[in-house]
Design a protein that fits this description.
- By secondary structure, this protein is an all-alpha fold.
- The chain has two domains: 1-156, UbiA prenyltransferase (Tetracycline Repressor, domain 2, Orthogonal Bundle), CATH 1.10.357.140; 157-288.
- The chain has 13 helices and no strands.
- Helix 8 packs antiparallel against helix 10 (199-223) and helix 11 (238-252) packs antiparallel against helix 13.
- It is globular, with a radius of gyration of 19 Å.
- The model has no long low-confidence stretch (mean pLDDT 88).
């Protein structure tokens, strides 16, 4: 039961909370041990907060998850973890993580609370409203990035928030597309909002978001005040180009994309592209 509870926190999805570390990297503060420690703690707290949200979400969706070929194996949907235990664990984890966040930095704690409120609204209302559902998920990533900056008291370029929002939208729309393909006529039984989506509509949204994402990243490399004035960051543009094209290939040709974190761990070309982008970005920011 304990192992099932840990699995329900979805540790493999904690990769998403790496966004919290964007502030420490792009503010050029990796050489400050105190700020690095605070950034790591902030990321860990968001892992706990997101884990608590997953527990509540799995309890509410357990009946629908039983119709899903993959999610039916989740511990709560499979009956391994009792719903009452999951909710109790979620409450304890959320309170503990939120209290720790406030102690780390009041502004960080306020952002963590805003994240929890957003997730509560998503679980209760927004996940059932077309378009708002994907915007809510993407906004959660923007709050993560903002929280990471507030935890160490550094500014982040507005461009980075825009890129974070668009990248999250790109990944969430790819996930929606895969759900439509995988579940076909049974999609609405798993997620109510899927009845308001169609493959042509999602593909059109992906085209808009993909274009906006690439253009925004290119503009970020030229105009962000936090980057070297030599515009050396533009040398990293090929990495997101390849990464986005590779992900689109996996979605449309391989039929993948249902869980972005799983795709990243499973697809070596995409994983190495991300590693190369991180290494190149750090080199440019700190040496450029």
């Amino acid at each position: 039961m304990v192992a099932g509870l840990v699995r329900s926190l979805r540790p493999r999805q904690w990769l998403k909370n790496g966004v919290v570390l964007a502030g420490i990297v792009f503010a050029r503060e990796l050489g400050d041990p105190d700020r690095v420690a605070r950034a790591v703690i902030a990321a860990a707290l968001f892992c706990l907060l997101s884990g608590a949200v997953y527990l509540v979400n799995d309890v509410l969706d357990r009946e629908k998850d039983q119709h899903h070929p993959v999610k039916s194996r989740r511990p709560i949907a499979a009956g391994v973890v009792p719903p009452a235990l999951a909710l109790a664990a979620a409450l304890v984890i959320a309170i503990g993580a939120l209290a720790s966040a406030i102690m780390l930095a009041p502004a960080f704690g306020a952002t963590a609370l805003a994240y929890l409120i957003l997730q509560a609204l998503y679980v209760a209302v927004m996940k059932h409203i077309v378009i708002l559902d994907v915007l809510a998920v993407a906004s959660g990533f923007v709050l993560r990035a903002a929280a990471g900056a507030l935890a160490i008291d550094v500014p982040i370029s507005p461009w980075l928030y825009v890129v974070t929002l668009l990248l999250a939208l790109f990944l969430v729309l790819g996930k929606r597309r895969q759900e439509l393909v995988l579940l076909t006529s049974d999609a609405a039984n798993h997620r109510d909002v899927l009845r308001d989506y169609s493959l042509p509509f999602v593909d059109q949204l992906l085209q808009v978001v993909t274009t906006a994402l690439l253009v925004s990243y290119m503009l970020y490399t030229f105009f962000s005040e936090n980057l070297p004035r030599s515009h050396a960051m533009m040398l990293t543009i090929p990495f997101p180009l390849y990464g986005i094209f590779r992900y689109l290939y996996l979605i449309h040709v391989r039929g993948d994309g249902g869980a972005p974190e799983e795709v990243l761990l499973r697809d070596r070309p995409l994983a190495w592209c991300c590693v190369a982008w991180v290494a190149a970005s750090i080199a440019v920011v700190y040496l450029g």
